[in-house]
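Most newcomers find our protein records easier to grasp once they have seen one. A learned vocabulary of local backbone shapes supplies the integers on the structure line. An example says more than a description, so a record of this kind follows:
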Amino acid sequence: MSLWRALPVLMLSALLAACSTTRYVPEGATLLNSVRVRAMGDYPQVNTAELRNYVRQQPNARWFSLVRLPLHTYSLSGKDTTRWINRTLRAIGEAPVLYDSLKAELSRGDLRQQLRNEGFLNADVVYETRHHGRKTDITYWLQPGQPYFLHHISYQIDDPQVAHLLGGDSIRRLLHEGMRFNVSQLDAERKRITALLADSGYYRFHKEFITYVADTMPGTNLIDLTLHLSLFHQNNRPDTLHTRYMLRHINYATGDPTDTRIHLRRHVLEECTHLSEGAPYSATGLRNTYNHFGRLQAVKYTNIIFTPVNGAKQGLLDCDIQIQTNKPSTLSFQPEGTNTAGDLGAAASLTYMNRNLFRGSEVLTLELRGAYEAIRGLEGYSNQDFTEYSLEARLQFPRSIPLLGSHAASSSIGNATSELSLLYDMQDRPEFHRRVLSAAWRYRWQRPQHHDHFLLDLIDINYVFMPWISDTFRHEYLDSETSRNAILRYNYEDLFITKLGFGYSYAHGPVALKATIESSGNLLQGGANLLGAKKDDNGHYRLFNIAFAQYVKADFDITRSIAIDANNQVVLHLGAGIAYPYGNSTVLPFEKRYFAGGANSVRGWSVRSLGPGKYKERDGRINFINQTGDMKLDMNIEYRTRLFWKLNGAAFIDAGNVWTLRQYESQPGGQFSLKDLPSQIAVGYGLGIRLNMGYFILRFDLGMKAINPAYDEDDDEHYPILHPRLSRDYAFHFAVGLPF
């Protein structure tokens, strides 16, 4: 590295070194430099990383767990807070965390109590501090001792009816003899019993009616546990049996005092109500009722009131459901800027939405969109502009509307929506005019308790036709005898794409997973064979004299986050996809092909500039089609850290590529081969900045090539990490949202 390249790094290091982290530490105080939680001995059951959360004082945040950038930023400020620069530095920085002996003692007590809650009843915690200069390191030493286990569990339930109900639910109990004593498990069992009773009509029951008595057996680490469920008591009245409530009447009313009419059909109201007259009160039914009314875009808010019935009949509830609806229709205008491979332009959309088309919260959306871009660097064409106009109509039903089968079967799918969509899109480029007509019928449903979503594309038909292709483009790429690009020619012909697809996604905690599979053309191929249709000169069946695509495609994507502390995490990502054209197709449609590089792939390359395999593009004019494939692999590791204010930082390593499954003359070196796989994995690295605005995240990533599988016998180009050249090896990316 030359002196000029190293100069910015040296200047930054000197600046950080010059601003002392103890500059604003008062006399007699010390900076909390580090906090450690360690176990004295071998205790695999003790999770010291989780126990660290019980320490009341944490040191200043470190950038990538190395540099206290927020503290350094704060320390750069002057003492005169009337100057705006000093106020700004302090606002975006972080004040020094001063060691507090009282908080250390309280943390020791919290750690000891948590260990005892986890079954280490004789646990103790000590801490030691090491002072060096004006900084303090503190280590909490855990002394867990031997854990205690449940020896015998007994139940004392004062209400006979409740005792009978719980006796039939023993298989779901969370407490078992022989398990380690754990207060969180005891509390979980209280919540489980409370939920069971609340779903069985016990409207006024809460978990405080359940208590435990734990007796240790002398000379052992065993505990006899008694669960006590007491009678109902309230306001110093005599204790009574718990009342089981039944629902007498369910009434619907508007929550808007200016409008006494509910603008929803009675059938829709009942479909969203998960409570029944004559049935016991159910807390889960109440929660599901709120959730289902909340999903209706026609509903503004819902309020559900239960009123006990007074008089001779006890244990009855009247339920009043108040519904206030939104304005049914809205009209919106949305302008936007566009940037396609450096070609700047503008777009605008006009959207009409009716949220209650048939008084069942059916949502009709009509969107008219127009776009314009000025295309640069295109020679030999009379026009240099790109224009696009599209009209899309979507009709969404907040339930499963069956096309096949009975309504009873479809209604068993919870939280389901059905959607019908129609789209007509007109694209006029200097090289060609393209029209797309599509129609789709799809289902979406979710299981909130399992944190997963499903998507079924039952019908998805796309008709792509090319009404005009310029003579220049046709001569250079489509009709030329020297052109070998079958992929290019295939994607500038009229085409039918009939898709059937299924998608699954899961997101909970640190794990997110997505998987999709789709196929196209099988029904048409089967119909052509059945009817004895003839093939054209290229060996393709045609529908209305138009070829149809036939392929199968599968994608898999998984992300795993690993938290280091409150300000740092490591995110691992794996994405893979494969698509195979067969039968009536030898080439995938362009929209279904994979590409590598760009803001969400291997960030050392710009979008569609990597692969397939070791293929190297020679004609930059058509790399958008040549640098695509039938198979993709993305592997990413990203270290994310909080910097200061609304800024977060990231360091990343990306690897991957795309390949073709067939050998195409226009893509030499692009076909997948298992033995060549290690040498054809591209690797990149880089740094990124994220501006978190709350509602959205602006992302800026600078990627560098590390290993380039496409090179011309030049090790400098093959291993750029050893021979970096900024003008050749970098790619800058701007995007909205995180990459994965």
The first strand starts at residue 31 and ends at 39.
